[in-house]
Amino acid sequence: MTEAPEVSKTSSTPEITTEEIFASHVGGKLEVSLTSALASQRDLSIAYTPGVAQVSRAIATDETLADRYTWTKRLVAVVSDGSAVLGLGNIGARASLPVMEGKSALFKKFAGLDSIPLVLDTQDVDEIVETIVRVRPSFGAVNLEDISAPRCFEIEQRLIEALDCPVMHDDQHGTAIVTLAALKNAARQQGRPLTSLKVVISGAGAAGVACTNILLAAGVSDVIVLDSKGIVSQARADLTPVKTDLAARTNPRAMSGGSAEALTGADVFIGVSAGTMPEALISSMAPQSIVFAMSNPDPEVHPEIARKYAAIVATGRSDFPNQINNVLAFPGVFKGALDAGARMITEEMKLAAADAIADVVADELTPDRIVPSPLDPRVAPAVAMAVTQVARA
Question: What's the CATH fold of domain 170-393?
């Protein structure tokens, strides 16, 4: 067994040891439990043969009955190819399974949804799409997870088109939903309109693209995106199709250059890359700036450094205030979509989810509390209700 690195003690949690981590994963983190009694011969005849044949015949006649008489209505498939796992990168399907089990456990804990991790031993787009389409009768929704860009964009879009059930790549949209919720509350706490902010997003991968899209949809007009070569602009000839599309919809002041040019006078920095941001550049931002350094485990700028210049700081880590954590979004989003019988998760549902998350703590705002705790029991029900209302409307 390969040993994991020691986890250091943080400011808000007791020390976590390697032994404790491995012990909690022995046998996996999931199991199947029964909802029907199996204590007698009669129970067996009802739950299995011969009684089950009546249910199967009914579904064969009317496939919509599967939602009522099987678990598909509350079952999410968490699907990954292991190509972009947490901060670990392309570690493959088998090594990604503990992460997908964890995601399934969060679905159950926070939304009461059953979930099955499916890790696929292929990174071919066609094979991934075909595999998920073929097993569609077994589940009610698809949570794509830890699939590298740019393949993740095509896989998600093709599955949305091919399947008649909700599909969402959480690395994109879960991150974007919680980021928007946090930014709404940061602006609210400072008493300025969201639409007035000059935003710089560092990272043009899955999360960066989704964050850009949701901020534009929410009315933020001045967004600059940075990739490893600088500002994504229409003047560049080296852009991928995804970045070409971003360039056409962002950078309204036609800025060029790199991080220094982008951050000077900016109101908001959103980091969703594996890079670092020098202290001097954070210091060049506008007064009362907002810094979301969300890379894990190492933020683009350490929160203590960012606090020297920024009025509000958030990270993706649990040991600092304002954790931007996808668990605030995805359980409620999927529960709401499934409760409403939605065929897809729309942009309007994502915006509603962000509003719901923000509203949970709207009356409790401080610079160190712009989003709820990931463990706040109010969040998933509020998000599910908001998504359901939009879906039914």
Answer: Rossmann fold (3.40.50)
